[in-house]
User: Fold these one by one.
Assistant:
Number 1:
Amino acid sequence: MVASVGFIPNPQAVLLLAACRTPKPDRLPGGRETRQAGRVFLVGSGPGNPELLTLRAARVMQQADVVLYDHLVAPEIVEMVRDGAQRIYVGKERSNHALPQEEINHLMVALALQGKCVLRLKGGDPFIFGRGAEEIETLARYGIPFEVVPGVTAATGVAAYAGIPLTHRDYAQACVFVTGHLKDGTMNLDWEALARPNQTVVVYMGLLGLPLLCQQLIKHGSPATTPAAAVQQGTTNKQRVVTGTLETLPLATFKAGIKPPTLIIVGEVVKLREQLAWFEPRADWETAAIESLIDPVRA
Ligand SMILES: C[S@@+](CC[C@H](N)C(=O)[O-])C[C@H]1O[C@@H](n2cnc3c(N)ncnc32)[C@H](O)[C@@H]1O
């Protein structure tokens, strides 16, 4: 059954799932060819600023019967989904999952088999540390039609709003995205490769393990003076940026009380922020602008 240790179930999602148990792919009523399946849109909602949604995302948000959305999807974006669409929160924060991944996969299948147009709304891009592949693998197994709508991933969106170009002819000819998620208190990364010069390393989910990350990079050859930044809630009106070096950043972020979601950027490009920072977080979202963005796609 759904309720087990390790997550706090969202009662609405659990009830829905229980009500529409997914049959095995080979036991679908009417067989694969004849049944009337709905459709699933796996959509990246970008790093939080509604202005960074793609036009395709805004359009399919107006077609959905039901939306399953994640923790990192901004409330302003959930608000933009078609009035009347059912809204289901499915998680997931670190160690607090509204619904485990497998149950989310099956809920999508079950809803699509009821003929619904399902919007699976995820933070950033669904294929970058988003488990999007697992979700559509399940859909593919059940023969459910789906479309993937890419989103602006945190690395590109957050870096742009922090005034940090990820590549630069003089400083970084490569850029690597890694997950800093701690497993059993450690990070299983190719430290030699990450410590190479002339590249930028972008770390998703790296805040908790930041001291370990900096320590390992230094141990494997990065100068302790390598510039590094932590960007909290980048692109949004709550954006906060702390800069330092591999040596100083862990303490600086701790002192500043930086919280997730935070992206870590390591490399010489970070120092360009001194000249290139352009974004001033503002408390008032330009809601009128957002409305004017969504109106043309409502038709
Ligand atoms: C599970 S990953 C999902 C990434 C997402 N699929 C993407 O493409 O951006 C979540 C991590 O992305 C990063 N992240 C996402 N949005 C962010 C934001 N607005 N500001 C800073 N970091 C962000 C954080 O490191 C966070 O822990």
Note: The radius of gyration is 21 Å.
Number 2:
Amino acid sequence: MNCLSMSYQPVNLSQEQIQQFQEDGFLIVENFLPTEFSQKLASRMAPLFQGEFETGIYPDEWYWREGLSLPDITREMCNAWKCDRTVASLVLSAEIGRLTATLAGWDGARIGQDSLWMKPPGAQAIAMHQDGAYIDYLSPAQMMTCWIALDRATVADGTLVYVKGSHKWPLADVKGEFHAPKKIIAGRCFRPQKMLALTSLNLSL
Ligand SMILES: O=C(O)CCC(=O)C(=O)O
């Protein structure tokens, strides 16, 4: 089997970090994944987007098809943990559940879904949005997103932009097309300069 399971050093979150997360709505944790594992995950992306599913199970959503879709469109695949054991070892890891529950002050955490993303050079920015606008069936309506860059990335490569404190805003409708919005919002006009692979996980209570 060509699978490398997630290994990690447990992260000890300080009270200051937990408080900062609760005030700002996000927390940056540097070097969370060992380099070898993030490289292994990034190397799974191309086969997955070419439709090579190790387990024989298809993902729940799959945007972008080799040879059919435009080359500079952002690619996204949801619930790839069902298709690939390496991806599953990250998405279903106890450590991500533990960190999520600790930050949110929950008793535990469950995975809602994963998304794999590939942002090719020149791709349009993803529309600004709240994930709750798409995952609107949770009760209580609380979730957390864990966004992990698998390649080395700078802001010019299309890293996540987050508005401090916006976790306290009411839910708003998303304007325009999600993967390639026509209107570029000020301050969100970077187009990736190189292929950027990342994964984001939605977790809930
Ligand atoms: O990386 C991005 O631009 C978008 C990621 C996103 O929408 C998410 O993680 O829910």
Note: Helices lie at 15-24, 35-49, 85-91, 94-104.
